[in-house]
Design a protein that fits this description.
Layout lengths: L7 H8 L3 H8 L6 H14 L5 H8 L4 E6 L5 H16 L3 E6 L4 H13 L4 E4 L13 E4 L9 E4 L1 H14 L5 E7 L8 H12 L4 E7 L4 H9 L2 E2 L2 E2 L3 E4 L2 H13 L9 E6 L13 E3 L2 H12 L10 E4 L2 E3 L9
Parallel strand pairs: 1-2, 1-3, 3-4, 4-5, 5-13, 6-7, 6-10, 10-11, 11-12
Antiparallel strand pairs: 8-9, 12-14
Helix pairs in contact: 1-2, 1-3, 5-11, 7-8, 9-10
Length: about 325
């Protein structure tokens, strides 16, 4: 029995072009604009869909890329995954998503799984060192995994500098940097480096608390108690390594009857927005998430990987969000 499913020959006949022209259009090869329009119109009219499996066999590719993330219940991770999906889709690639819950065993298992699924490459944001096959196209976000694996990140050092400069501009005299996160070195560590550099250069008092993991409320409560004299906090400007940490600190300070931003101003990092309203959780250094995603995909799918940079840093921007004095 003859199938009613349209073929490339049917598309060629409908478009009035050669079969080879149809093949070039569907395989992304250069053809004249008028020919491409005819083929695409004919395919749409007939309901023809490209057989991605067959296309992959011919090209020696699967047209599939893997994305490895800690989770998607964090607004930053969910936004990043959406933008990476969009960037891959524009290149006719599908995305496989793997979630690790920040566990090193799961992160490494994901590398093995993507090999079994024969993906064309991997984009990963991990919290731990990984062993990556050199012949597997790989792009890391926020963490260097080796000289031959490109890393894409926001310019964290400049972001830290910007946070310090903004707090000083807003009249702060005694600053603090609070950090939670992975115990392994990564690009986000440079947020504190840039912040502290400004304080040293300008001879501004700066207290630092760096905690691995998420830390505890007791850690921060004790830190602030050590800086309260006569019911007054001697710190008047705080830079937090993430927006989530800034929100936690705001709650801890409220329990100590310390007002934000009247008594102490806070700047976070990420640019997370509230669902529904689109408002920022706090004053923050906004990461260029869409540009980060597009850069990762461009590096992953680059036809010539011999000159790919080991690190690409993209600028963040400051925006007020209610925890600094601009909003008063």
């Amino acid at each position: 029995m003859k199938s009613n499913t349209p073929t490339m020959k049917d598309v060629a006949r409908e478009a009035g072009v050669a079969l080879g022209t149809v093949s070039k259009v569907f395989n992304g090869l250069p053809v004249g604009a008028s020919y491409r329009e005819k083929v695409e119109a004919a395919a749409k009219k007939l309901g023809y869909q490209v057989n991605q499996y067959a296309r992959g066999l011919r090209a020696g590719k699967t047209y599939t890329a893997a994305l490895i993330l800690p989770a998607v219940d964090h607004p930053y991770f969910s936004s990043l995954s959406q933008y990476i999906h969009n960037a891959l889709a524009r290149q006719d690639y599908r995305m496989l998503l793997y979630l690790t819950d920040r566990r090193p065993d799961r992160e490494q298992d994901c590398i093995h799984m993507v090999r079994q699924n024969r993906v064309d490459g991997v984009i990963a944001l991990t919290y731990n060192p990984l062993v990556v096959d050199q012949d597997l196209p790989f792009v890391s976000i926020d963490r260097s995994l080796g000289p031959d694996i490109p890393c894409v990140a926001t310019d964290n050092y400049s972001g830290g500098k910007l946070a310090a400069e903004k707090l000083l501009e807003l009249g702060c005299k005694h600053l603090a940097f609070l950090r939670t996160g992975s115990p392994y070195p990564g690009e986000p560590d440079k947020r504190g480096d840039g912040f502290e550099m400004v304080c040293r250069t300008k001879n501004i008092p700066c207290d630092v608390l760096r905690l691995n993991g998420d830390g505890t409320s007791e850690n921060f409560h004790e830190f602030f108690l050590s800086h309260i004299t006569g019911g007054k906090l001697d710190i008047d400007g705080i830079f937090c390594s993430t927006d989530f940490l800034a929100e936690r600190i705001r709650g801890i300070l409220a329990n100590l009857n310390i007002r934000v931003p009247e008594d102490v101003q806070i700047i976070g990092f990420d640019g997370i927005r509230q669902f529904g309203t689109g408002r920022l959780f706090c004053s923050t250094i906004i990461q260029p998430v869409e540009k980060l995603a597009e850069t990762c995909v461009d590096l992953l799918l680059a036809s010539d990987r011999s000159n790919i940079p080991s690190l690409v840093c993209l600028p963040g921007i400051y925006a007020p969000g209610g925890t600094t004095q601009e909003e008063i």
